[in-house]
Q: What sequence folds into this?
């Protein structure tokens, strides 16, 4: 009856990592990935900041991120796959209160793992970055609630991917090489819910019948599968709501603004030496509101962004747009108080994407019910965690209790499910 | 700046209980309730089965329900308010496995509280109800997965409200008598999000400003309030999504079908003696799939219903409709296997409403953030728990750590909030 063993809805980073790992373990399984767009990773994967970091305060997040990064490093160093990782590091600039909390988290993690980090005091930061650490006499900054920078912490095992398509391309190519299939321009319109044992009566399944997901209806016809995997990010709930399944994933727009480093001050900041071997400013997080600066050294630009909360809407959009005011009255106002180098410089371009936020706890959600698997909720760190998430999805599909990450670390599959979910709160949210 | 101290969106049972309790404790507060319909309780409160029970396996649910029922009893017995409670009892008909589990739950609760219940074996049930307890030889029942009835458990402190408007009317009248205001035909279209300290710049609040809910925009204009309370049941998320706040409340259609007790067998069943002082069949829950029968002795009818799960959609509808097939191929098929009395009888009428399901744990959700309060998620037992929920909402508004239920029992307000939520799983779900 089924056309495929598995149909995966979504050819973004999570869908393709899942496809690759399931196909690797089950080479004979007929697996189809569909995506509504014309090629891989063109949805919200392409609309992300494409930054990565090994470090999270939750053991779960840390394990997902760290093992994924080890796999990406392995791809580059051992297999010669150029996925254009730039290990710039993440530099947190912190208020006194946040510094105390964050350095405690890092200290604890360093005791339990091989985490490396470096601390900087505010004088050193000023010397290196020409950052304003003391805003006491700035009345406007005070009324905006901006706080002084007490110190900084640098995590070297972090950075940016300058071309996400290279990583996407790895998973896609390998999946296809193993015999997997991908169909682009195919949009899942609805899930097919059917009784396990059809009676042939109108409107079945009824509640006294065991029901299951039997595939998807698409703009190109029906695709029937033994297992239906939803990896469509922010769009998952649009498929799940009509069958009454909760996934706790909601979409929120995230915006990025490009600033060209034309002035000598901005050039100097971009090519700040001493933080990494690339001689470039790290991915830098400002204090108080955690505005972040993502350097693009080759292009000579920065991206700046901010993940706002209340009252930013949960809203699905095909083509979300960045808002000029969000930069000018929002980010710019905070950014220039700490980094006067950005004063009077307008954004040269901008883009926006949708975070697929897991509203339970900000961790991914990977569960199965009724032959329906959900793989999502990466909450803004999909690229950072994609490899591990794909391996957990594979373990769930294979009905294993534990997933095996790159580097052989084991991970309990049910920890990211819904019934026996077990995660710690995350303190290092961006 | 504010027109009111409190604006409450939703004049159903939860909104009016909240309004009454807040106004009782704060007689000088200017409180306005708005409802999009023409009078109180005409939304999903009116579209419920209007059944109540004291008993839940979770201590939280039990406390909410039991104290609310004690208050309703007090209204009738001490204050002479006729809210038309019929203490018919709830009769669970149970398979052997469910009987073991359920009777253990009841035994435990009876040790800790004054819970009363009576057990019946299957012979006694057959004698009293002419119910088929043994379906072994019924091939169709077997292939439908229907199981034998092993025994029954009756909870006397439970029943139905034959006219919910009487209870609604109590809260409304008392709230108005205390000086509260209600405006009907006023529909909240959106929440107003504003900075605590406005800068007068376009598009504020920005993320560096502290933002708050400052009231609602309605079809009749803007209503500004110091505190905005959402008690709009299934509709809450439509107001919350645009400001990016998660409440974990999703709507699911529930259907009820009226069956006239025309035949002598159905008359006899309706007026079954011995279970309660009214000489009427209790509210009865069938085994296997928990189809339920709600007797309407005065009208000489039954309502039958079923709360279906997958693949019933999460879907908001202004006027949800019952589906003929849902009775004929769904409920009827199960009902008549156990109660042949219903064979060949069609539903004379039907209606549907929306459960506002809390998808976290099925318990109510009562929390505040940014001067916005959410009071909802009663998950099908809004009437059963309304009085306690209103008292918790009052305590939250009053910034008390504990709410005081009718009968003086204390309840920790944060247990039903989001940050420090603490509830047990509910095993007695209908």
A:
């Amino acid at each position: 009856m089924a056309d495929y063993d598995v149909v995966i809805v979504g050819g973004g980073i999570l869908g393709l990592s899942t496809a690759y790992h399931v196909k690797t373990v089950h080479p004979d399984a007929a697996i189809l990935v569909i995506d509504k767009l014309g090629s891989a990773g063109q949805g919200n994967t392409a609309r992300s900041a494409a930054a990565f970091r090994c470090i999270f305060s939750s053991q779960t997040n840390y394990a997902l991120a760290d093992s994924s990064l080890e796999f990406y490093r392995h791809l580059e160093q051992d297999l010669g796959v150029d996925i254009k990782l730039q290990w710039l590091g993440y530099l947190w600039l912190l208020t006194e209160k946040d510094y105390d909390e964050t350095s405690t988290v890092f200290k604890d993690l360093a005791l339990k793992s091989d985490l490396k980090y470096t601390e900087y005091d505010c004088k050193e930061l000023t010397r290196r970055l020409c950052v304003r650490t003391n805003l006491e006499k700035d009345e406007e900054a005070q009324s905006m609630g901006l706080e002084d920078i007490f110190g900084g912490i640098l995590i070297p095992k972090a950075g940016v991917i300058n071309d996400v398509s290279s990583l996407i391309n790895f998973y896609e190519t390998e999946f296809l090489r193993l015999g997997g299939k991908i169909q682009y321009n195919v949009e899942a319109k609805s899930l097919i819910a059917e009784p396990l044992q059809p009676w042939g009566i109108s409107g079945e399944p009824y509640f006294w019948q065991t029901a299951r997901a039997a595939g998807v209806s698409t703009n190109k016809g029906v695709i029937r599968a033994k297992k239906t995997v939803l990896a469509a990010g922010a769009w998952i709930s649009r498929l799940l709501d009509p069958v009454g399944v909760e996934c706790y994933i909601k979409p929120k727009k995230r915006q990025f603004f490009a600033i060209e480093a034309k002035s000598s001050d901005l050039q100097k900041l971009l090519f700040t030496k001493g933080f990494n071997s690339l001689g470039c400013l790290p991915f830098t997080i400002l204090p108080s509101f955690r505005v972040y600066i993502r350097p693009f050294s080759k292009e000579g630009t920065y991206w700046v962004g901010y993940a706002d909360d209340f009252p930013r809407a949960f809203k699905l959009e095909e083509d979300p747009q960045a808002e000029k005011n969000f930069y000018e009255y929002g980010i710019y106002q905070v950014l220039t108080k700490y980094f006067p180098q950005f004063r009077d410089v307008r954004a040269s371009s901008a883009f926006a994407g949708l975070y697929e936020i897991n509203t339970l706890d900000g961790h991914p959600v990977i569960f199965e019910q009724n032959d329906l698997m959900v793989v999502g909720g990466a909450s803004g760190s999909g690229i950072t965690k994609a490899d591990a998430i794909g391996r957990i999805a594979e373990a769930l599909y294979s009905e294993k209790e534990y997933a095996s990450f790159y580097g052989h670390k084991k991970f309990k599959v049910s920890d990211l499910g819904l019934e026996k979910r077990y995660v710690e709160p995350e303190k290092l949210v961006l």
